[in-house]
Amino acid sequence: MYKKIIVPIEIGALDRGEKAFRKASTLLDTGGEIILLNVVEDVPTYVAIDLPAELIQNAIDDAQEKLGMLIRTSGIPALIEIGHGRPAHSILAAAEAHDADLIIVASHTPDFSNYFIGATADRVVRHAKCSVLVDRQR
């Protein structure tokens, strides 16, 4: 069905990401590719002054380790990519750079600030140039 699927995974919600990753494997064409994407958000300069210099690198290393473990335990082949900046922007940029034909984004149970779908999922749905599957999770 799909040749290249982007699966953004928030390391703090790895279980939701794993579900989306498994869904991606069922939708992938033979010879297709899944890219697991984690986005490390930039720390504002006024906050970064008080944080350890290696904080960002530690977040990158942690994401690579946990995504690698997810690939090994699931047995599903995938590439790992670490993005930087605002999550929605990084997801859309990765989809465009990889010429993806599907993004599977997990969306949490909404609260009043983002009632219909999560704020990041909402932005991805509105601006993606490819199909987007929102995997609603509770």
> What percent of residues are in strands?
25-35%
CATH architecture: 3-Layer(aba) Sandwich
Quickly count the domains: 1
CATH superfamily: HUPs
Question: Averaged pLDDT, please?
Answer: 89
Main β-sheet, in a few words? 5 strands, parallel
Strand order of the largest sheet: 3-2-1-4-5
Classification by helices and strands? alpha/beta
Query: What string gives the helices and strands in order?
Result: EHEHHEHEHE
- Uncertain parts: none
CATH class division:
Alpha Beta
**Fraction of residues in H or I helices:** 40-55%
Contiguous helical run count: 5
Radius of gyration: 15 Å
Straight-line N-to-C gap: 27 Å
CATH topology: Rossmann fold
- Envelope shape: globular
- The count of strands amounts to 5
Q: What layout of secondary structure does this protein have?
A:
Blueprint: E1 2-8, H1 14-27, E2 28-40, H2 45-48, H3 55-74, E3 79-84, H4 87-97, E4 102-107, H5 119-127, E5 131-136
Helix pairs in contact: 4-5
List keywords for this structure.
5 strands; single chain; alpha/beta; five-stranded parallel beta sheet; 42% helix; 138 residues; Rossmann fold
Task: Give an account of the 3D structure.
The chain has 138 residues and is an alpha/beta fold. The protein has one domain: Rossmann fold, CATH 3.40.50. The protein has helices at 14-27, 45-48, 55-74, 87-97, 119-127; strands at residues 2-8, 28-40, 79-84, 102-107, 131-136. The chain has a five-stranded parallel sheet, sandwiched between helices. Helix 1 links the parallel strand 1 (2-8) and strand 2 (28-40). The longest helix is centred in the middle third of the chain and has 20 residues, at 55-74. The radius of gyration is 15 Å and the shape is globular.
